[in-house]
Amino acid sequence: MLRVEEVQFAYPDGRVALSGVNLDVAEGERVALLGPNGAGKTTFILQLNGILTGTGSIHVDGLPVSKPHLAEIRRRVGIVFQDPDDQLFMPTVAEDVGFGPANLGLRGAELSARVDEALAAVGMAEHRDRAPHHLSFGQRRRVAVATVLAMRPAILVMDEPSSNLDPAARRELADILLGLDVTLLMVTHDLPYAYQLCQRSVILDNGRIVADAPTAEILADEGLLAAHRLELPYGFSVANAG
Ligand SMILES: Nc1ncnc2c1ncn2[C@@H]1O[C@H](COP(=O)(O)OP(=O)(O)OP(=O)(O)O)[C@@H](O)[C@H]1O
């Protein structure tokens, strides 16, 4: 579903944010992208739909991420940013969720059905006609997920999905994500969330992939975690995580 080969990226000031990144993600896989602040995680996900362009190659379901294909690539790669307010700008929830599909040409009953389907998937159907800015942060994050799901993406990319959520909202979002039939790449500092949601984890540090293994294996390797400034919450261990 996703093939990343030898991706390098330097910002205009010369700072090298990614060097020689290779990653394959299979259809239906859920992968956590871990790494300390400044590792290059955000820079990496912004390459996946061509917001940033470095060297090397990226293919999504066989299609290269390159200028002539950007419209289709952006439909296939749905990125949910950390701040839902970056993605919600219409007067109602339904208009926000319908914005992308309407741009694809959907109208009338077809558009409405697409919106209902996406809102139902995140448990927000009853909030269809509300103003996004009247919703709680957790509800806005779910609507942001719906705006992306409404495009029926091939891969859902989430930047720190559990940040700023209370424990109940964090758990509810995990349940929603576990119920989706989608390929997921999730950037997170929340290691138990990675464990709960993703069978596989990748550690990015200093612009390079330094580990790619089952999440349980990575979280059990204290030396590896410490070397890359990753810390489990006090008392958490893979053995007792359930
Ligand atoms: N616009 C920019 N110009 C120059 N350097 C940048 C820019 N944005 C990010 N960087 C640098 O690129 C590197 C990678 O940053 P990036 O934001 O991708 O890291 P990250 O892993 O997402 O970090 P965090 O966990 O803090 O969100 C860092 O050294 C950062 O300082």
CATH superfamily of the domain at 2-87 and 154-228: P-loop containing nucleotide triphosphate hydrolases
Any idea of the CATH class of the domain at 2-87 and 154-228? Alpha Beta
**Can you give the mean pLDDT?**
96
Poorly predicted spans = none
Strand order of the largest sheet: 6-7-8-3-9-10
Report the principal-axis shape.
globular
Throw out a few tags for this protein.
alpha/beta, 242 residues, 10 strands, six-stranded mixed beta sheet, binds adenosine-5'-triphosphate, globular, Rossmann fold
Any overview of this molecule?
With 242 residues, the chain is of the alpha/beta class. The chain has a domain of 161 residues: P-loop containing nucleotide triphosphate hydrolases (Rossmann fold), CATH 3.40.50. Helix content is 35%, strand content 24%. It is built from 9 helices and 10 strands. It has a 6-stranded mixed β-sheet, sandwiched between helices. The protein has a 4-stranded antiparallel β-sheet with strand order 2-1-4-5, covered by helices on one side. 40% of the residues are buried. The protein binds adenosine-5'-triphosphate (ATP).
Structural topology:
Layout: E1 2-10, E2 16-25, E3 30-34, H1 41-48, E4 55-60, E5 63-64, H2 70-76, E6 77-80, H3 93-103, H4 108-121, H5 137-149, E7 155-159, H6 167-179, E8 183-187, H7 191-197, E9 200-205, E10 208-214, H8 215-220, H9 222-227
Parallel strand pairs: 3-8, 3-9, 6-7, 7-8
Antiparallel strand pairs: 1-2, 1-4, 4-5, 9-10
Helix pairs in contact: 3-4, 3-5, 4-5
Adenosine-5'-triphosphate (ATP) binds at residues 11, 13, 15, 17, 35, 37-43.
GO molecular function: ATP binding; ATP hydrolysis activity; ATPase-coupled transmembrane transporter activity
Subcellular location: Cell membrane
Keywords: ATP-binding, Cell membrane, Membrane, Nucleotide-binding, Translocase, Transport
